[in-house]
Design goal:
By secondary structure, this protein is an all-alpha fold. It has one domain. It is built from 3 helices and no strands. The model has no long low-confidence stretch (mean pLDDT 81).
Length: 102
Amino acid sequence: MRHAETKSTDGAEKLREEFEALVADAKRLMDATAGEAGEKAREARERLAVRIDEAKAALGKAEDAFSASLDKAGDYVREKPWHALGAAAGIGLILGLLLGRK
């Protein structure tokens, strides 16, 4: 189970890094256009700043939910390993049948 948790955590970390890069690019764009005159440019920068803050909050909530789900899944596997093994085998069988079709 630790391997799956590591892969999931690595994926979440990569997503977070990509998001942070996007936010940094958006902030650089906002800074580069700060000298632009006009009401529309100012409004666009303000909307972008609000969206960035909303996206950061949403990402934080998603991370918390993902972490909680991962913890619950780990607890379930430790409490009922045979159930988890059976579910994994069933899912593997179904995926194998679906992917094996031509």
